[in-house]
Amino acid sequence: MHLEECIWKNLEKWHNKTALVCAQTNCSYTYLQLYKKSNALTSFLCNLDKLKQSDRVAVALPNLPEYAIILLGVIQAGCTVTTLNPLYTSDEMSHQLIVAEAKVIFTTPETYKTVQIALQLSKLHIPIIVVRAKNDSTLPHGAIDFDEIARNHCDAKFDLRRSHDDTVLMLFSSGTTGLPKGVEITNRGLVSSLHQMSAPKLDPISETSESEQEVVPVVIPMFHIYGLVIVLLHGLLKGSKLVVVPKLSSKLFVNVLETYQPTVLYVVPPIFHMLLNRNNIKPSHFTNTKSIFSGAAPLGATDVMALSEKLQGKVNVFQLYGLSEVCLSHVQSSQVDGHRKPGGIGFLLPSTEAKIMSTTTGNEVGANQLGEMLLRGPQVMKGYYKDRNANDAAFTNDGWFKTGDLCYYDEDGHFFLTDRIKQLIKVSGYQVAAAELEELIRRHKDVDDVAVIGVPHEKFGEVPKAFVVRRRDSNVSSFAIQEFVKSKVVHYKQLIGGVSFVDSIPKSQAGKIQKIELKKY
Prior knowledge:
This protein is an alpha/beta fold. It is 28% helix and 23% strand. The longest helix has 16 residues, at 31-46.
């Protein structure tokens, strides 16, 4: 089954239901309108000169309802969607455009100039299609108007010969270990992941009926696989109402909670901590909310329990774990009471295999033993686009994908994430997980946020250093933070590298701490 067949299979049941609504402009589309407009775009692309099946189509947009039209329209045309962060500089965009060999790009008037310069740097001469979210926006000279394309009526059936192993998404890795790499997700991988996360007892989102419809805010950037697959496509598959938030602010987020009363909420750690720490976010905002999920970076078990307590135990709070390379689906927490564990990331999804390999011996280890998680399943990526060295490093000879994540599972088969292997701090031969220290320091009453990195040390090779954001009106000293940690951990985990106070922790839009930036401080 192809992606669009999955999305449209229940169109008759909920064609008049709202599919997407913009939290800022109130622009909305029903499922029938979404279907018609994506078909109109498919027709346009199929007739576009120099665009052929399997070509890459770039999308440099903020979160907008039109993102779904473009995603489905491009994939229906047999092309590959490659997403770009609209906040990128021209240099950053040009790298991705060159790697992807993009043939068309979608953007907004606000980002048009950046895209133009990126195309000049890339030496690409391709059509720029502009989405005008604001009615008063002027169409830039030389751009193609998206609205004009989407207004065209098209009832055509597209009989394109496509393989289930064709690449439908090319998303770029975070680039924490070098320049971002193009991750190729196939139709088979994407559809498999959507079916896996819809498994009974695991899926928090119920299918839309005549009387009930889930309400799911889209606050995660859709250029990231978390926002694109877990929230957008998963929501559309179940017939949910998706409340799209173009630019997140505390005020707008509270308005979304009050106006739309979400039933399921997907967030990243910075938003999670906003829910936990902001006094203007109250339990009454979550009257209809069944579950809150946080992904993209680990949370401490104490944070998960603290938010659950703030919401008076009436909302289930979970951690999500995944990677772009496995379509963000391989483990998931059970929705059944009594089958969840604090700090856990869940059970393996159907059709997924995993094993834990010791980082010292390279041998497979058993329950409650730490090591690197290796995965195998239909949702695993085809590979990194035209990057043989990266593919050789990512896969074993017998096809297991090496996640680079330090994990363990318990006797019940429940998995726990400790840290990224590359973020381990090696102190005199001991391995220290930065995430463990971050969770500990967040418990301090005067700490609002924290990040821990390894810094060079003449005697020990590398030692932990903490960057701390104080809570408002706090004057806690670096010595006090160091003593707090010293009282709770073994000697080699102590903050020998010191404590620096900062106004904020640099994070990506997906909520991941940008530790490369911290090393420049």
